[in-house]
Amino acid sequence: MTDPTIPAPGDLVPPATGTAPDAARPVTSAWTGAAPRLAGRGLVHRFGTTTALAGVDVDLADGESLAVMGPSGSGKSTLLHVLAGIIVPSGGTVTLRGEPVQALSEKKRSLLRRTRYGFVFQFGQLLSELSALENVALPAMLTGASRSDAQAAAGQWLAALGLAGAEGRRPGELSGGQAQRVAVARALITRPEVVFADEPTGALDQQTGHDVMKVLVDSTRAVGSSLVVVTHDADVAAWCDRRIDMRDGLVVPPGSTTGEGVGPRPGEKPGRALPDDLGSARVSDVFGGAR
Amino acid sequence: MSISPVLALAPRLQRAGGRDSRTTTVLAVTAFTVTTALTLSVVAALLGFVDRAENPVTQFDRDMGGFYVTLAVTATILLVVPLLTLGGAAARLGVARRDARLAALRLIGATPGEVVGLTLLETALQGFVGAVLGTGLYGLLLGVWTQIPFQGRPFTVGDLWVGVPVVLLAWLVVPVLAAVSGAVTLRRVVVSPLGVARRETKPGLTAVRVVVALAAVAAFMFVSMNGQMFAAILVTMLLGMLAVAFLAMNAIGPWVLGVMGRVRLRRARTPAQLLAARRLLDDPKAMWRIVGGLGLASFVAGCLTAVPALVSLAGDSDPDAVMQMSDIRTGAILTLAITFLLSAVSAGIAQAAAVLDRRRELSLARLAGVPDDLFDQVRRREVLAPLLFTSVGSALASFVMFFPLFGQIILSAPSGLLLLVGSLAVGIALVLLATEASRPLLRRTLAETVVRAD
Questions:
Q1: Transmembrane residues, as ranges (chain B) (predicted)?
Q2: Domain extent at residue B100
Q3: pLDDT band at B364 (very low <50, low <70, confident <90, very high)
């Protein structure tokens, strides 16, 4: 069933007065050279007198995963929230498939997040009164799927992510790693164009965090979504195709915030073997491959 | 005397809670204020009628003083449970926030005694402030109460002034009861801090039934000591019946709501229906705290269905009988009004607490694009059906219970039924309004999801 209120890409066209300041600049992905799926240009954001973003350019290509690293206060979470349309930046533009996002009303941005984005937070995003199955099904129901269809798909997602048998469990009855895998399934059930993950392993031990990142990266790639991961952990960032480092609201040279430089740089192909045993194939078999 | 380091943290923890903590405190203090003001008013009326019976001015006072005391005791008993419900709601308010904070303290090594001590301090302080403010509100309400004539003349402020000892007693009792209630609510933290940190819920106890039983015994003793033996027997029977009915309702209510939740869960088709059903099923006791007050009020309304009929039976031949019946009607309407008001305030407080308790979930759901409207739909759905079911069901139950006694009379003067339907409609509207009052709090909670500066 199609929800007639879901904005078609054409709905994202801004009003005539909202012309992007840097519209003349060509917007292409540094990684692939193709037009980016999501792009931020000259992003500035202030909280009162604090400047959280001081002019950031960022691209995200189709199917690309990007790690945003930096110490506390560097502006990385603010960047995620600006890119995701949660907050409107004080300056600059964010475009999704070339269409400015920040000119949309709060309601339309909410609709955008619900229908075209997926989210994984550090912890606590599952609704405590719903079962794992219902938590995963909810976003699909919110976009117009029937409960039975949504729950059937949710069951398949949980099984694909190794949670068969946990469908009826409540968030309080899941381990931290299980809860995050449920969150990944919930973020992906609508096959979003971009998944935003804010410290997705921040509340987990190293091994469990490793497992969750593997599930997140593999399944995101399997459905063809792009991925933005905010983290302060270089091991987590290493899972992504590309990484940017931030300090004081600016993107800084690689490794300058942590003293090392793992991960492929802009213009490079991924420099490490991508995880393959969770089964991109398995997930895409179930859900029909990349969008 | 040295103070425990953890207890010394109390004021700092209070301040550290920020805006939510202040909201919680304001709501709790408001609830204690209303509870204290109305309790003092009810006690004042009771003492006023006792005084008139003991020091009669007119022949009517001499003849009917005891009867009026009996009615006042009955009204007091009818109001005990709603008053306790509101006090309990205040003490329970925002408990999840305190749960999390205190569980963290337990995890870093605070002793159970220190955790309980913090709770006692915080809740008792809120209770004390509420008691003091409530005394002021009671003073203001005296202006209203002294406009209402009983036995042919209104009470004076002097008649309805409870006296300094009773006020001091209230200032002592309200904080103590608040602290005890808070400590009982937080026992889970003391037993298992991890349980709270992981948001597992365990069934709680219903202490109300014990208090009601004690109140019934106390009322019996009070009436017996006043020597109105015949009235005492009648009152005791009436109170016994009411106490049994109240206890039964409190025991059965949450269970029935749980069954209702299961049925609604099976039938849920939309996200709002699913969430409303799950919330009801998740914690039927919490929903009972919202709608149960109105259930009890509706029960009282059902009991009072016979009053207009009794009034009309008196005819207009005997002026004393007319006055007596008119007073009964006034008393009944006053009792009902206060009961409905109390249940509406309880419902509003409980709903506000539910918003604060779910703060993080709500915020993150909104960030992920869940529309704000959904939360409004869920609130209305989760409250409305249980509310209708509980209020209409309770009114019917009491109507049926009293039908053998008053059936013929009620049918002969159906204005009692009109009173019942009218008061139910007003009561339901009041509770719905009170729960809707949490909407700005929800909006503000959602609006505060604006991201921290990393």
A1: 25-47, 67-91, 128-148, 160-186, 207-225, 231-257, 288-311, 331-356, 383-403, 409-434
A2: 1-202
A3: confident
Q: Which domain holds residue A117?
A: 61-79+104-287
CATH classification at residue A134 = 3.40.50.300
Exposure on the CB side of residue A130, measured as CA atoms within 13 A: 27
Same domain, B140 and B266: no
ipTM, interface predicted TM-score of the complex: 0.75
- Partner residue opposite B198 with nearest CB, options A52, A114, A172: A172
* DSSP secondary structure of A223-240: TT-EEEEEES-HHHHTTS
Buried b (16+ CB within 10 A) or exposed e, A231-253: bbbbebbbbbbbbbbbbebebee
Q: Check whether residue B223 and residue B187 sit in a common domain.
A: no
Q: How many domains does chain A have?
A: 1
Q: Locate B178 and state its tokens.
A: 């608040």
Strand partners, A32: none
Residue A11 one-letter amino acid = D
Residue among B287, B360, B367, B379 with most chain A CBs within 10 A, to mutate: B367
Domain boundary (B180, B202, B224) is at B202
Which tops the pLDDT comparison, B38 or A276?
A: B38
Q: Is B201 on the interface with A (CB under 8 A)?
A: yes
Question: Chain A partners of B367 at a C-beta cutoff of 8 Å?
Answer: 81, 84, 86, 113, 119, 121
Answer for the pair B131, B32: CB distance below 8 angstroms, yes or no: yes
- Sheet containing strand A99-100, strands side by side: A50-60, A38-47, A91-96, A99-100
Token duo for residue B203: 């069934």
Round to whole Å and give the CA distance between B323 and B319: 6
* B112 and B139 housed in the same domain: yes
Question: For the segment A75-123, what is each residue's pLDDT rounded down to a tens digit?
Answer: 998 999 999 999 899 999 999 998 999 889 988 999 999 999 999 988 7
Residues 187-216 of A with CB under 8 A from B: 187
CB pairs under 8 A between A and B: 102
* B135 and B195, same domain (yes or no): yes
Consecutive H or E run containing B182: helix B164-185
- Among the candidates B155, B171, B202, a domain finishes at B202
pTM for this model (two decimals): 0.74
Determine, yes or no, domain membership for A206: yes
- Tell me the angle at which helices B319-357 and B95-107 cross, rounded to the nearest 10 degrees: 40
DSSP codes, B286-336 = HHHHHHHHHHHHHHHHHHTTHHHHHHHHTTTT-HHHHHHHHHHHHHHHHHH
